[in-house]
Design brief:
The chain has helices spanning about 5-10, 15-40, 50-60, 65-75, 85-110, 125-135, 145-160, 170-175, 190-210, 210-220, 220-240, 250-275, 280-290, 290-310, 320-345, 350-355, and strands spanning about 110, 115-120, 245, 250. It is mainly α. The protein has one domain.
């Protein structure tokens, strides 16, 4: 897309929308690969030292960084001009309310004790557990990201004024580079985790504020960005296979993931911009339903992978673990997309209050 085209159609920029679709695909594949290891090998791909698990983590972990990056870009390019009231209203109605709805459902029936099951306890105990789940994003294994994202959104009015104050610009770059020493922690909630994602969000805000210039620079240095991605990936594989992570108080893996995902993210954004008129429609459908798909996919994914893992198949084969993971990824992606589209058809715009937008 040329700069003039971007200016003419500020409310919808196809390659940015498509990037949201790629982001949700990446997240679902990452969850599926972890699920494959959990249900088949009964181990965590994060702690395994096999080459296959190292590659699975290297290319599957950290997809939420893409989503945070594009959120920052879209705010600067599109949402900022609509005003703070519209921004706050949309996040409350289409992110927070669906988060409460799904958290309530997953607290009632969700993943516990290694499998799916109903909550057993009194109403008071349920409300207490729901309250804790809402604060920490622990109603289901994928819900941790939403309270983090809400904190990221809340940081927006604090960060955006810095974009127009040259004397304070150093603070922006400190935020962008902060994740290199402020590692995200998972599972569990830590103050460093929102700081990690605020870094990616700030990078997106800066890119969106100067998008035409950023597009030119990213295209000019596209091979350097791709080379940086490859180098980070190779080092990550080495770290996994040799059980290397902590360097003092910093997770070296998470620092590398941050660089890897930002470099590949802006490279991919550039490439999508080059083929904007040829982007498939289904990618835009996934992008438009990204939040509903995120909320819904995990329960479908668990059902698929857990069921397939009970079959008498040669699970010692890495290829079989990969196959069951991809089956879970594809099935949950399609299933969540179909469900979200069906609910949208049934309830219209009101569906966004339940399943997000």
């Amino acid at each position: 897309m040329s700069p003039s085209e971007t200016q003419k159609s500020p409310s919808f920029i196809p390659h940015l929308n498509a990037f949201r679709g790629v982001a949700i695909i990446s997240i679902i594949i990452g969850h599926a690969l972890s699920g494959g290891f959990y249900f088949v090998r009964h181990e965590s791909s994060w702690t395994s030292t096999s080459l296959f698990s190292a590659m699975a983590e290297t290319f599957g972990h950290g997809g939420t960084i893409y989503f945070t990056l594009i959120s920052g870009i879209l705010f600067s390019l599109i949402l900022k001009s609509r005003g703070w009231g519209t921004f706050a209203k949309s996040k409350i109605l289409y992110v927070l309310l669906p988060y409460i709805f799904f958290s309530a459902g997953y607290t009632l029936y969700g993943f516990r004790d290694g499998g799916m099951g109903f909550f057993e306890g009194t109403l008071v105990e349920y409300m207490v557990e729901l309250g804790g789940n809402l604060l920490t994003g622990t109603s289901f294994y994928h819900m941790w990201y939403i309270p983090i994202l809400i904190l990221v959104y809340l940081s927006t009015p604090l960060i955006t004024p810095l974009l127009h104050k040259p004397k304070l610009r150093i603070l922006l770059y400190l935020l962008v580079f902060m994740p290199l020493v402020s590692s995200r922690l998972w599972p569990g909630f830590s103050v460093t985790t929102p700081l990690y994602f605020i870094g990616a969000y700030t990078a997106g805000l800066i890119i969106g504020e100067h998008y035409q210039l950023a597009q030119s620079l990213f295209y000019r240095f596209r091979w350097a960005l791709l080379a940086s991605t490859v180098i980070c990936s190779a080092v990550l594989i080495y770290f996994y296979t040799h059980s290397i992570d902590k360097l003092a108080f910093v997770s070296a893996r998470e620092s590398l993931f941050y660089i890897q995902k930002l470099c590949f993210g802006v490279w991919l954004l550039t490439m999508l911009g080059q083929i904007e008129q040829k982007l498939p429609k289904w990618l835009h459908v996934l992008a438009d339903k990204a939040f509903p798909i995120y909320f819904i996919h995990a329960v479908i994914q668990v059902a698929i992978i857990a069921s397939l893992s009970t079959l008498n198949l040669p699970w010692e084969s890495d290829l079989m673990v990969f196959a069951i993971s991809m089956a879970g990824a594809l099935g949950s992606l399609l299933g969540a997309a179909v469900i979200s589209i069906a609910i949208g058809k049934l309830l219209g715009k009101r569906s966004r209050l339940l399943i997000g937008a």
